[in-house]
Amino acid sequence: xxxxxxxxxxxxxxxxxxxxxxxxxxxxxxxxxxxxxxxxxxxxxxxxxxxxxxxxxxxxxxxxxxxxxxxxxxxxxxxxxxxxxxxxxxxxxxxxxxxxxxxxxxxxxxxxxxxxxxxxxxxxxxxxxxxxxxxxxxxxxxxxxxxxxxxxxxxxxxxxxxxxxxxxxxxxxxxxxxxxxxxxxxxxxxxxxxxxxxxxxxxxxxxxxxxxxxxxxxxxxxxxxxxxxxxxxxxxxxxxxxxxxxxxxxxxxxxxxxxxxxxxxxxxxxxxxxxxxxxxxxxxxxxxxxxxxxxxxxxxxxxxxxxxxxxxxx
Length: 314
Ligand code: NAP
Fold this sequence. Notes:
The protein is an alpha/beta fold.
């Protein structure tokens, strides 16, 4: 049977944007309900060291930081639901949202903080070995690759951080990048280039993952030089794909204004979407900064804007 919940603020998503929105909305006495999604805590729960979130002199762990944010949100009065929103109706206010477990929210305002998800190469052979040698999360799976040869695909901060992290387990890490320059921060590049366990293969893409069927296991990776199409095979029993993210916005397709990469569009200096009373905060609307601290800032903005909207309209 459907359980109906009326609320001033429904927050969808549980990364830094969602939890910060919850903290501010709860402290404004709006009694927010937060639906966490499949991976409570978001992307930071699959990160290790965090050394750029202000307020901590020493390195902290991503999962710990998210647990602290959750505890803080609960303490000030957020109702937390480990559930998945599978349908939203935004064409009239109050808005409507339904979840997998059969809850129906009737909300005066909605804060979308659903974040972004890892991108894959979309090769058939990648699907075959996902979970059997191929992963998009070094923190989650690196441990399983002790003393093995691993490749990391990508040239951004994530790829370089993952390559460095994987040296804790692997005997050798090869970073495979499609260009001859990394886009990762200089300080990370320096650490990468001087690490004795890491090699970089420039100007190459993965064409195929090759391995055994029984048991399913990765053995080799076929690479292609983007300049002359020459192929080469390297020995690797693990591959980590770190080529960026896509916003988690399929739930809102054709219901809210998005850009050509499906990021939600918000008004300048605001988290308000094209629908009054609906706000978007964090990676779901930000492809530039994508930091925990910027997401948290946007979560705060969204809650303050929702509070103002409710005060003026109800
Ligand atoms: P990113 O910066 O978008 O980098 C993605 C990388 O993957 C790029 O080097 C790109 O190549 C490559 N790539 C994309 N599609 C590919 C494909 N189909 N095949 C092969 N290579 C492909 O993504 P990210 O590293 O995940 O970082 C995302 C954001 O989070 C960034 O703003 C980053 O600064 C931030 N971040 C920050 C930290 C930190 O501050 N500690 C840690 C992680 C991430 P090209 O270079 O050729 O485009």
